[in-house]
Design goal:
This protein is mostly helical. The protein has a single domain, classed as DksA, coiled-coil domain (Four Helix Bundle (Hemerythrin (Met), subunit A), Up-down Bundle), CATH 1.20.120.910. It is built from 4 helices and no strands.
């Protein structure tokens, strides 16, 4: 389990990442807006490109929302005192893994065997 200064460092890391993602969500992505299908304003290939960019922007927004959910869950685990403990085996998650992926819920061994 994470304690002391490590606890604070992971919490600050998660809070900073949450703040950054919330800013990106709040700003929105202009490419995610509905694509106009007015042929007098743009050609077919331009519209297709705009529609592809729109789909990519929507997918990126969904990934940001999912990451925000993982961050909120990690912050709840910190508050509950369960942060850094594998949800499957109950063993401690390696600090190196948490530094790379602070939202990790499983140790490397369990993550390799997970179907998620």
């Amino acid at each position: 389990m994470v304690e002391g200064a490590q606890f604070d460092a992971f919490r600050e890391l998660l809070l900073a990442r949450r703040s950054k993602l919330r800013g990106q969500v709040d700003d929105g992505d202009p490419a995610a807006k509905t694509v106009e299908l007015d042929q007098t304003r743009q050609g077919r290939l331009s519209r297709m490109d705009a529609m592809q960019q729109q789909a990519m922007a929507v997918a990126a927004g969904e990934r940001r929302q999912q990451e925000l959910g993982r961050i909120e869950a990690a912050l709840r685990r910190i508050a509950d005192g369960d942060y850094g403990v594998c949800l499957d085996c109950g063993e401690e998650i390696a600090r190196g893994r948490l530094k790379i992926q602070p939202t990790a819920t499983r140790c490397v061994r369990c993550a390799e065997h997970s179907t998620d």
